[in-house]
Amino acid sequence: MKTVLIGLAALGLTSALAGTALAQTPPEGVEVTIDFRSASVDEYWFYKFQPGGELTIRVLTQPHDGRPFSELPEGPAGQWSLDADGALTVTWDAGDTRHCDAWPDYGYNGTLDGTPDGTCWLNEDLLEAVQEGALTSVN
Q1: Mean pLDDT by 10-residue block, N- to C-terminus, for the chain (139 residues)?
Q2: In DSSP terms, which residues pair with 100 in a beta bridge?
Q3: Going by DSSP bridges, is the β-strand pair 88-92/135-138 parallel, antiparallel, or unpaired?
Q4: Percent composition of the chain: helix, strand, coil (DSSP 3-state, to 5)
Q5: Closest to 100 in 3D by CA, of 50, 45, 115, 111
Q6: Are 38 and 45 in contact (CB under 8 A)?
Q7: Is 41 in contact with 64 (CB distance < 8 Å)?
Q8: What pLDDT is stored for residue 5 in this prediction?
């Protein structure tokens, strides 16, 4: 019985450490989707944390009037960096700079608004959209 309890305790500690480590992992390769929906159009904004510190955006637009969707090719949106302590800084091309103590722990298929400090890196416009109910996912 002691062996089982020690094994479960070790498993719990390992899981706790894995969660901590996940929160400290760099965002490199992560793609964040923000889905803006209105009565006339749906827009899907894909932000990707590229290797080397570039933040890019790709936009898909789906009008509700029967026209086909349109796509803006991937382009620059800003820069990101991590300091030695794991703090994240995002400098948006629009001029905003945002800081996070660490890369948020979104877990698997997390959301920006459903994660503590999950919106810390968003610029003012994106933060407002998320607060107004834009759908989000982090992959």
Answers
A1: 36 38 69 93 95 96 94 96 94 95 89 92 93 91
A2: 88
A3: unpaired
A4: 20, 40, 40
A5: 115
A6: no
A7: yes
A8: 33
